[in-house]
DNA sequence: AGATTCGGATGGTAAAGCGT
DNA sequence: CGCTTTACCATCCGAATCTA
């Protein structure tokens, strides 16, 4: 588990106490992303990976080191000395677990950083719907030996003259910060962004405390899971391997208090874990344009307004349905043929000739 | 297992709308 | 005219599927 496909090699830094910490680099698509400010008194940002599912759905080969749908940035109030956050099986399922820390059952989930896109993908990557980069030839084209055909595509010209109807003014919010529901008492109606309390933890899991990995020695297998609490020399029953929260923020370290058993400890790299669907309160958007990958010139004349505007889509977690069979033509790089097979369907709509947008409405 | 396909989530930003 | 809102359209994630 430990190692990701190939990309990120975790670097190691040290916290104020001199303890080593593995610092995984940001996944490529989040490079340079901005992170929301932390609520007052919140713990430094952590990438949080949900626990490995036990139902066999675990996919250790998630690309970019990012579990499906994640990771999510989370903020927590400071844990007690010697403890870090983690998920654990529900109490009762495993005897000997300490009780929940009061007020911490609902950590705040901050929006995850945005995925970064290149401004212009090469035609090969675009037709394959794969990540491109700014280099020419791009990395992917080089990898597949099609560097010679790695060229920028042509952006369609944007449609003009589309009527939209009156805008609904939004309320300007200043300094949107997430807050902890357990801490927050004032209910400012709508000017403050409500905290998103963690919805249901991944199936069968709860937010939980665990001793800091530095608290206990690493197991022979290198499973630095930091279990087996031994604060007083009295060990709990053995605890199965569990995920902890690993810092992926090179610049921020939590002010860990001294440990009774402090000392150099090796961390196991974050295991790959799948995440449950993001909180529904986070973003609601939808849309369903067809990515018309035709490189057709931008013809403006009359355009069919399309509507869409309804229905939230199942999250990435929901199983996807796929057509039974497929045609032939495809625009894969290796075949170097243009795509342009998916057809868009124009569901016309628009109140008094106003467009309804293929995107429907998105969160602000 | 790796490559390919492709539905649709997500990002970027031009253009429309609107207050001044 | 600058700022906000809307929505066009591109990127590319990731599951489904195909192929070696
Ligand atoms: Zn490319
Ligand atoms: Zn390329």
Automatic annotation (TrEMBL):
GO molecular function: DNA binding; DNA-binding transcription factor activity, RNA polymerase II-specific; zinc ion binding
Organism: Meripilus lineatus
Stretches with biased composition (Basic residues): 161-172
Ranges of compositional bias, category Low complexity: 179-192
Pro residues bias: start-end ranges: 267-280
Record field: compositional bias (Polar residues): 1-17, 281-316
Origin: domain of life: Eukaryota
The Zn(2)-C6 fungal-type domain, residue ranges: 121-152
Region (Disordered) location: 1-32, 161-196, 219-240, 263-364
InterPro entries: ERT1_acuK_gluconeogen_tf (IPR050335), Zn2Cys6_DnaBD (IPR001138)
Keywords, comma-separated and alphabetical: DNA-binding, Metal-binding, Nucleus, Transcription, Transcription regulation, Zinc
Name this polypeptide is given: Zn(2)-C6 fungal-type domain-containing protein
Entry annotated with the keyword Transcription: yes
């Amino acid at each position: 588990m430990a190692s990701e496909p190939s990309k990120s090699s975790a670097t190691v830094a040290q916290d104020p106490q001199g303890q080593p910490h593995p610092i995984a680099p940001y996944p490529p698509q989040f490079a340079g992303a901005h992170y929301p400010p932390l609520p007052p008194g919140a713990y430094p940002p952590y990438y949080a990976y949900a626990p490995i599912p036990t139902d066999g759905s675990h996919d250790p080969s998630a690309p970019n080191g990012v579990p499906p749908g994640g990771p999510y940035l989370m903020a927590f109030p400071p844990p007690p000395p010697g403890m870090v956050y983690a998920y654990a099986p529900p109490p009762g399922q495993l005897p000997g677990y300490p009780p929940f820390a009061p007020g911490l059952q609902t950590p705040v989930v901050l929006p995850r950083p945005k995925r970064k896109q290149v401004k212009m993908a090469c035609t090969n990557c675009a037709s394959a719907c794969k990540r491109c980069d700014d280099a020419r030839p791009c990395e992917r084209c080089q990898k597949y030996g099609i560097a010679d055909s790695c060229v920028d595509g042509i952006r369609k010209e944007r449609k003009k003259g589309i009527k939209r109807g009156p805008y609904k003014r939004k309320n300007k919010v200043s300094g949107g910060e997430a807050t902890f529901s357990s801490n927050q008492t004032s209910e400012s109606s709508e000017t403050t962004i409500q905290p998103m309390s963690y919805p249901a933890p991944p199936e069968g899991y709860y937010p939980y405390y665990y001793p800091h990995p530095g608290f206990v020695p690493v197991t022979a297998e290198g499973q630095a899971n930091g279990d087996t609490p031994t604060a007083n020399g009295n060990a709990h029953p053995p605890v199965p391997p569990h995920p902890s929260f690993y810092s992926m923020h090179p610049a921020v370290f939590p002010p860990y208090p001294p440990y009774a058993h402090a000392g150099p400890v090796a961390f196991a790299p974050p295991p790959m874990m799948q995440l449950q669907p993001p909180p529904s309160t986070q973003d609601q958007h939808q849309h369903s344009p067809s990515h018309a990958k035709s490189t057709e010139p931008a013809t403006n004349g009359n355009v069919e307004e399309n509507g869409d505007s309804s229905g939230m889509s199942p999250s990435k977690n929901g199983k996807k349905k796929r057509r039974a069979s497929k045609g032939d033509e495809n625009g894969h790089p290796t075949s170097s043929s243009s795509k342009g097979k998916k057809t868009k369907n124009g569901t016309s709509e628009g109140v008094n000739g106003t467009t309804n947008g293929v995107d429907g409405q998105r969160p602000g």
